[in-house]
Structures are given as structure tokens and as C-alpha cells.
Amino acid sequence: MINTTYQIIRTMRPRQWLKNLSVFAAAVFSGNVLVPSVFTVGVKAFIAFCFISSGVYLVNDIIDAPKDRLHPIKKNRPIASGKLSPFLAWIVAFTFIFGSIFYSVTFIGTYFTVAIIAYILMQLFYSLWIRNVIILDSLIVATGFVIRVFAGGFATSNSLSSWLILTTIGLSLLLAFGKRRSEKTILKRHAIPAEVAEEKTTRKTLKHYPDSLLDSMISMSASFTIISYALFAFQTSTDKVSQTLKSILPSILSSPKWMMVTIPFIIYGVARYLYVIYEKEEGESPERVLLNDMPLLLTVVMWGGVVMSIIYLIPSLT
């Protein structure tokens, strides 16, 4: 029983829940995340997405099990390795998915529920068909992040900046194409030729992704992310400055665009992620990269701290 529970938790991929923190984006940047009612519904949305995404991962692993057994790394997944029965996995998956939909309807709201249903359908189409269509497979992965951000806005009733959405798209594409690049690197590391990648992996599109195309897409996405975030930071910077700060700062900084200070963190974070992909040859699992690469993790933590200080601390100083 304990071992079965452990295998279910492994298949749920708790590390992937980091992605679901994006449901707080709209509330954080609107300045309302510390409002108790907003924070509470944000937590509910986060929980719903955690179980929804875990349910989808279970379904995905059931579908992919035959080919996962041929993959050098994925063969160790619980279902592919035979440590978790597909029948039990189906039961858990349906419980998570339909339970989360009921939970969302009851405790969160209609628009959020529509968003998660759209997410579920998109992921199912991805597992059954879209994952085999080059370029579109990566776009769908990126769309998952965008749906999370919108769903968070629906749940907390906070508006979304157009530049925030574009930044999310750019970052999502960077992670998606970086993931594909790393998957190809893993195949090469295990001496699996591109010609037989279709037979040895669950991604038929890998053999159709030339390295030069992925490199171009990664470069484009990285540039798009930085530019979009810079414009987002300029647009959303608060002009609220306390009298204390006004008395200290020179007159030309009496109404500064504080959020622009966070741009260097984004530039370094993107550059560090590119280093991880190309030099360390990692990146197949973005959440694992974030947790294991200390410079990148520190950058994200510092960026978050500065953003929270700018939005919530500076305006409150007297």
C-alpha cells in the first residue's frame, strides 16, 4: 500500500506544481494578492490546477507507457516500469480530473472552471495527436502556461496586462523549445540516432526538429521574453512614492519606474537558462533545472523579492 501510494505520487509529478504558481500572477501584479479573500481563492485555484495537471500526467503516462519502455529515462516511470497498474492509474486520474472540476464549480467560479476544462481538453488532444505535429506541439505546451495565467485572473477577478501575457508566451516558448533541445541531447548522449528516434521515444517530432531550427526558436523566444518583460515592467511600474522617499531621492527620481529595476534579473535568468541548455546539456525538465541550478534559483527568488517590495512595500512607506 505504501509503495503504491509512493508510485502514484511519483506519477503525479509534484515538481511540476511549480508551474501552477503562475495562477497568482494577475493578483500579484495587480497589487491585490495580500487581500485575504483574493489570496484564499488564489490558493484554491492553485490546488485545483495541481490535481488537474496530475490527473493529466497520469493519463499521459498510461497512453505513452509502451513507448516509454523504450526510452532511456522514461522507462523508469511507474506505469512504464510496471510498478503502477494502468487500471489503478485510470481510477486515480478520473478522480483527480472530475473531482477538480466539481471543486472548481463549487468553490472558485464558472470562468475558472471553463479555463481548466479547456486546459484538460487541450492536454488530451496533445497526448493523442498534437504532440506529433512539429512546432504545434511546442505551441500547445506554451499555451498551457497562458491558460494558467488567465485562469488565475478569472479566479481572483484581476485584470491581465497584455505585456504580461506576451511575456508569459515568450517564456513558455523558451521553456518548450529548450525542452525539445534537451530531449535531443539526451538521445545523442545515449547513442540513439535521430533516424530511429521515432521508434525509441514518445515524441515523433524530435527527428523533424533540426538543431539549427531549435536554436533559432530558442534565440527568438529568449529575445521576445526580454523585450516583452521590459515593456511590461515599464507599463506596470508604480508611480506611488512615499513622502519619505521623495525627501531623500533627487527630483528627477521623485516618480521613478521602479519595476525597471527587475529587468536585469530577467536578462540574467534567461541567459543562465540558455547556459544550462547548451553548456550543462540539461533542460528536459524546467522545474528540475530551477530547483537544481542554484544561480537560477537565487535569481528567481531575488526577482520575486524585489517585485513584491516594489508593489507592496515601497508604496506603504511613510
UniProtKB/TrEMBL annotation:
Per the UniProt record, one Pfam family is UbiA
Recorded hits in Gene3D superfamilies, A to Z, give: UbiA prenyltransferase
Please list the GO biological process terms of this entry: glycolipid biosynthetic process
**MF terms per GO, please?**
transferase activity, transferring alkyl or aryl (other than methyl) groups
Name the membrane topology term. Answer: Multi-pass membrane protein
Membrane-spanning ranges: 21-39, 108-126, 133-154, 160-178, 213-235, 255-275, 296-314
User: Where in or outside the cell is it found?
Assistant: Membrane
InterPro entries this protein is in? Answer: Prenyltransferase, UbiA_prenyltransferase, UbiA_sf
Record flagged with keyword Membrane: yes
The alphabetical list of record keywords is:
Membrane, Transmembrane, Transmembrane helix
Judging by the UniProt lineage, the source's domain of life is: Bacteria
> Is Transmembrane helix there in the keyword field?
yes
One GO term describing the cellular component: plasma membrane
| Protein name per the record | Phosphoribose diphosphate--decaprenyl-phosphate phosphoribosyltransferase
> Where does this protein come from, organism-wise?
candidate division WWE3 bacterium RIFCSPLOWO2_01_FULL_37_15
